[in-house]
Amino acid sequence: MKFAAVIDVGHGPETLKQAVSTQLLLLERLGTRLDSIRLAAPRLFDVAYASALAEKPDVLVVAGCARSARRAGQLAYEQKAPVIFLPGLNASDWAAGLWGSLNLDEAIAALARSEIKRVRLTVGLAGAHVFLNDARCGLLPFVPELRRDISDSEGFSEGWHAVRRAVDAGYCLLRRGVEFTPQGDQSRRASALVLRASGNVQTGSVSDSHFPVLSATAFNYGPLGYLLGVARGCTGGEWQGGREEHFVCSEVDLHTQYGAWILLDGEPLRLRGGTGVQLIAGGLETCMFAPGLQIARGNAKRAARLPYGQVGDTGRSWNFRGHSSVAIPESRDNGETASRKQV
Fold this sequence. Notes:
CATH class of the largest domain: Alpha Beta
Number of domains: 2
Radius of gyration: 21 Å
Helix content: 25-40%
């Protein structure tokens, strides 16, 4: 079984400490099964994930925040590659269904013992862009994220790009509200729109008759409330408020101009004109950690821990090759590697 791991070092000493701890745990528990491991700054996510997948691993292992998970999910979805998400700082709520009550150490230990169960995640698509948790439209959701990007910038160049992005997004989004059309309904307008895709983990095969629906919330503000919401976002407060309208639908058409902005799992992205948002059932292949342990913990009537064989035989579920030649890289930069070992 061939693993390639990418760890998000994030911003600040706390996330760096978490990244180093994750690296040491992976090296200790997976040993020779870990073909490569990369620590990547946020601006290098795409390069790190593309390089890891270019090695043709059986599984891509990812640890980091919601944004880094989305980037990994994007490439894994495009290349139809299995991806495993590890607990990390500022991780999204959608992944709780994969980890249960397990912490990082327990999750890596379960992975090392192959105590995992194959599952598939329903992913959202905004045009060609994948999101795992939610898609947000409008200026109000953007304000706290853009503020965070500016404060987390490292160096003049990164800070300047963050400021330019904030100015451009503010100019594009302030001119009008969000216009959208739920499938089979009339066109609507709102100050902000949130479309959620989280919480849909499928443990069995994906049925053609299963059509997941988007859970949506439209926020409508008056002029004064809108300004107060922007002010709260600029100071790090919650922007949510106004009159909320909740609805579900199978697809939403966003009537946006070329170059409009959208937030996918907290990451600002530009759209090319009007965009449809929908869910893809079982679009991403991943795994649940220690499913027997999670079921046993969640059922107070059963004191005995369930044997993993009764939950699902993971040894065959991934269709791994029988043997793979695995190397531990001493330095990816200079190309030197350790001796190889059959596993």
